[in-house]
Amino acid sequence: MNSLLGNNPPFQGKELFQLQGTSTFLLAILGTLATGLGLFYLLKGWSGRTFARLLLLVLAALLAVQTARTAWRAAFIDYDNARELLVYAHSTEDMKNTVEQIETISKRLYGDKSIKIAYDNDVRYPYWWYMRDYPNKNDFGAEVTRSLQDYPIIVVGTSNFARIEPVVREDYYQYEYKRMWWPNEDLYQNLSLSRILGDLKSPAKRSALWELWFNRDYTEYSLAFNNPSLTLATWSPADNARMFIRKDVAAKIWEFGISPEPEAPRVDPYEGGLIDLEPALAINIGGELPFNAPRDIATAPDGSLFVADSRNHRIVHLDAQGLFLNAWGGYGNVLDGEVPGGLFNEPWGLAVGPDGLVYVADTWNHRIQVFTSEGEFLRMWSTFDVLGIVDGFWGPRGIAVDKDNRVFVTDTGKQRVVIFDSQGNYLTQFGSLGLEAGKLDEPVGIDIAEDGRVYIADTWNYRVQVFAPDAS
To answer: Whose CB has fewer CB within 10 Å in the chain, the N or C terminal residue?
Structure first.
């Protein structure tokens, strides 16, 4: 049957491989005839019922052997790879290898399984079972936070690849593995009678289907059905995982005799754009008092400059040439009691609105103050109402005013940006603690472009984020 239905049937031509197919078929015919003749003489005189029973017994024996063969292959050969058809979605052998590596590292460092290991919701299966003896495991699900840097080993699935990058940065070695795979869906998707008949008419496809079913060998199937994703390395559908090992831990392992591979030199992505500039003007004093930790600077419509002289707790006004015009402020700490307007506790940020008013983030008094360009106090606010709940700042550091006189404040301690009108009336806010896009970790600097886009220095996520001027 294999000679007749395979991909090299008999009597197809005179080429060498075609003659081989013909000769194989003829030899099979002769062998079958000889076997049939021998059985005829051996079973001569048997009744039809007895002969039928023998055929059923032989068929049952063949099916039993094939059942045992299939069970053995499924249980001991293909039990954890994608070739086996008896299993749907299942974990790969790679995940067992990661567990063995984690155990080796933990026992070398601590002598037991007490190493801190964190894993996400993707690799929860199968890690919920594999990590059952690790007392310091952390199944953090999808909540990726900077606290994961306390874990020398982190394992995540594809859904968290991008989100984990701000955590691991350049401090971890990265290894990628196959995490999960599913059966070849081409076998049953878009299945129809015409497709089945077409596959059975093709010698190459008949042979490929036989090899797949009988031997779990996808080599011929991959060629006959033009599907290159059927090796264990390229299998699809599949899902990957990444294991991150912190470099200081890896260095300790190397002390046990494992030598590190030399790292490729790090490339500075900004190196090509680096330029050396000499200052046209240097200013280190405002009036009779030297600056002490100046944190921010803003330009007024007339070209003059305002400087947040943080540790002198004042705002300094300079002309366009850097000459001192005036200064205002003084120290006041809300922890000591009520602080009147005009006093500061380390103002970090300031901005000048289109109307020339000066907006100051009075950081450690947790409030915003507004002044005229001459330093006359106008108003301030520290708390505001959000859906009927009184809220307030915690260490606001950055402030910007757009062309519509809306005031944007980076409320650093609360990981958000709050928007007000010029009178301090609450409009809206965005941001919360996190690593993914749109989330913030101690935002500080903020600026608004001509097109209304908001640029934010997302400090501990080591990035700049850009937001549209509308709710998108």
So the answer is: C
